[in-house]
C-alpha cells in the first residue's frame, strides 16, 4: 500500500498531538469526530489508532445559572426551581 502525505506527519488534518506541558490532546487543524454504528468498520479503524472518548454536550447560561441544551424536562425543572413530571395521556 502506498500512502502519500503532504504534511511531514501521517493523518493530514485529522492528526492530533499531546501538548508537552499539560498532556492535553490538541487538534492543530480543528477537532475531528469519527462515528459509526458498523462494528466491522469500528474494528478495522481500531487496528490503526486509539480513540479518545467524546460525548457532545451543549450548555447555556441565563440569569447566572447554567442549563443543558437542548431544552428538556430537566432543563425546565432546573430553570423553574421545581420538580416537574410529564403528564400521562388519558389521566
TrEMBL record:
Keywords: Isomerase. GO terms for cellular component: cytosol. Residues 1-22 are annotated as: Disordered. Gene3D superfamilies: NAD(P)-binding Rossmann-like Domain. The keyword Isomerase applies. Its EC number is 5.4.99.9. GO terms for molecular function: flavin adenine dinucleotide binding; UDP-galactopyranose mutase activity. It is an enzyme of class 5 (isomerase). Pfam families: NAD_binding_8. This is UDP-galactopyranose mutase. The lineage of its organism: Bacteria, Bacillati, Actinomycetota, Actinomycetes, Kitasatosporales.
Amino acid at each position: 500500500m502506498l500512502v502519500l502525505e503532504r504534511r511531514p506527519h501521517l493523518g493530514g488534518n485529522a492528526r492530533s498531538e499531546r501538548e508537552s506541558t499539560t498532556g492535553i490532546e490538541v487538534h492543530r487543524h480543528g477537532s475531528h469526530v469519527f462515528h459509526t454504528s458498523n462494528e466491522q468498520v469500528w474494528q478495522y479503524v481500531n487496528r490503526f489508532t486509539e480513540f479518545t472518548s467524546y460525548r457532545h454536550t451543549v450548555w447555556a447560561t441565563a440569569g447566572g445559572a447554567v442549563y443543558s441544551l437542548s431544552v428538556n424536562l430537566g432543563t425546565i425543572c432546573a430553570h423553574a426551581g421545581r420538580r416537574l413530571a410529564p403528564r400521562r395521556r388519558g389521566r
